[in-house]
């Protein structure tokens, strides 16, 4: 969900844009290469899936033994969900023709490289993988996680899918905070330990906030086009200046979480060494960069998030 949709004022379906019909190596529509599909899966967003599971395992390790099998299943669920939502966004935005002026990564549907139904099938396949791994994880932990997983899949699809996608109503950052923060981190901790902790909650808030910051940076980049087409994102609501302030607060929350967690585990302060990455990621935001100049912010913030998650998990696990 972190790569926010670029929408029109109406979510009604329309013919996908054919303004960009050539793929890599000169391939036409329907001739997407493996690298095109890989870009369509948007690997730069995968940190949003890996980081919460990693730090969730770390939070659990601070008060319970680690089950690496359950950790692997949780990683598969999170990764498959984010790949699924990326393809679902590609499909839904593409059939509405809302990616025509996109300045971000390649869109398979909007570019005309791949028939829309094939992108939709790819989304469903990814959701299927998440579902199978999720059921297995639920059988090893708690049956009601099947219901949680079903809600996650529905939320992933209706982010930009359906007649009234909530991603077009300024709820993208809230959704990311809930599903890739609270649900992913605390869900991972619970499947490991069978209980939750204040440390886990702090980790969830930190990851959820910085993951939301990735989404917000994407929407900050798209304020001009979103405003012109009537799309109301949080960034459009706040305006350029206030969005930049909110982004800095959200992206810095993992550092705040480290200080909070240090009251239980002093070694958590080790994760503050990612602060220079935060400074580098925030530079374009603070300097007033616009458009494509904001694209590096997404990757840098993702790297900071994953580095913080790994360091925090190590500190919590080894310091237990």
TrEMBL record:
Residues annotated as transmembrane: 68-88, 119-136, 171-190, 196-217, 252-274, 294-318
Gene Ontology biological process terms in this record: menaquinone biosynthetic process; vitamin K biosynthetic process
Molecular function terms from GO: 1,4-dihydroxy-2-naphthoate polyprenyltransferase activity
InterPro entries noted in UniProt: MenA, UbiA_prenyltransferase, UbiA_sf, UBIAD1
UniProt entry tagged with the keyword Ion transport: no
Pfam family, one: UbiA
Primary localisation category: membrane
Chain spans, region Disordered: 1-35
Pathway: Quinol/quinone metabolism; menaquinone biosynthesis; menaquinol from 1,4-dihydroxy-2-naphthoate: step 1/2
Localisation per UniProt entry: Cell membrane; Membrane
Name of the protein: 1,4-dihydroxy-2-naphthoate octaprenyltransferase
Species of the source: Corynebacterium lactis RW2-5
């Amino acid at each position: 969900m972190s790569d926010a949709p670029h929408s029109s004022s109406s979510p009604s379906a329309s013919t996908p844009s054919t303004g960009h019909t050539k793929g890599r190596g000169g391939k036409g529509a329907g001739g997407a290469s493996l690298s095109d599909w890989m870009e369509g899966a948007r690997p730069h967003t995968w940190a949003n899936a890996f980081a919460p599971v990693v730090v969730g395992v770390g939070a659990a390790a601070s008060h319970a033994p680690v089950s690496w099998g359950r950790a692997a299943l949780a990683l598969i669920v999170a990764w498959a969900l984010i790949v699924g939502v990326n393809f679902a966004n590609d499909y839904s935005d593409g059939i509405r023709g809302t990616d025509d002026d996109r300045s971000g990564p390649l869109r398979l549907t909007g570019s005309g490289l791949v028939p829309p139904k094939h992108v939709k099938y790819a989304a469903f396949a990814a959701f299927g993988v998440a579902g199978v791994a999720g059921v297995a994880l639920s059988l090893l932990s708690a049956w009601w996680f099947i219901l949680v997983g079903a809600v996650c899949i529905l939320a992933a699809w209706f982010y930009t899918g359906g007649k009234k996608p909530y991603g077009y109503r300024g709820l993208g950052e809230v959704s990311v905070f809930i599903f890739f923060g609270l649900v992913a981190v605390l869900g991972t901790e619970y499947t490991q330990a069978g209980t939750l902790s204040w440390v886990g909650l702090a980790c969830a808030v930190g990851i959820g906030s910085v993951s939301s910051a990735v989404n917000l940076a994407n929407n900050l980049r798209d304020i001009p086009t979103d405003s012109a087409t009537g799309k109301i994102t949080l960034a459009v609501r706040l305006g350029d200046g206030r969005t930049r302030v909110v982004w800095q607060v959200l992206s810095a929350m993992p550092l705040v979480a480290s200080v909070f967690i240090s009251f239980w585990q002093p070694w958590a302060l080790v994760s503050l060494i990612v602060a220079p990455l935060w400074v580098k990621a925030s530079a374009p935001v603070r300097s007033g960069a616009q458009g494509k100049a904001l694209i590096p912010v997404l990757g840098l913030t993702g790297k900071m998030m994953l580095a913080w998650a790994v360091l925090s998990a190590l500190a919590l696990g080894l310091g237990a």
